[in-house]
Amino acid sequence: MSESFNQTGWIFFFSIYVQALGCGACQPCNTAFGADQFDEDDPKEVIQKSKYFSWLYLCSSAGALVGNSVIVYLVEHQGYKLGFSISTAALGLSLLLYIAGIPLYRFEKLGDNPFTRVFQVPIAAIRKYHVQVPQDVSLLYQAEEKQNRVLPHTSQFRSESLYLKLELSSYTKHLHYLYLI
What we know:
Blueprint: H1 3-35, H2 43-68, H3 70-78, H4 80-100, H5 114-127, E1 163-167, E2 175-179
Antiparallel strand pairs: 1-2
Helix pairs in contact: 2-3, 3-4
């Protein structure tokens, strides 16, 4: 192996890892950060949030299209200097716009550790495995805050609802039940 190959290989793999870090860490966070800028309780902002995601995906797709067609064409016909200059200028412009908007952003206050809430669910399920679920849903615990975000209680996962309807004969059209558990 020559020394130039080792240096070129190091630069290549470093650039691939930096790109993976940018796509895997920054891009999803920017999407979520943009969604946090809208109040879900305000009907006008719900419409604006929908428009935000439409524009976000349109611009992301247009950027990928331009990057994979126009920039490649310019690199092949005009040289790397012009292609990388345009890409760098576009990145610099987007960074300036991002920084200019900082005073207008809504910042969410940090809450508890998310892993605590994630581990609470399986631990509570294990502890309450043998507890009988009441038939009357009004006896179940229900959080009172932000009622529009609370999922309604269902009997989807009760053992009584785990029956499968099977048609045994196409002539009689009778339904029979097969108990799954």
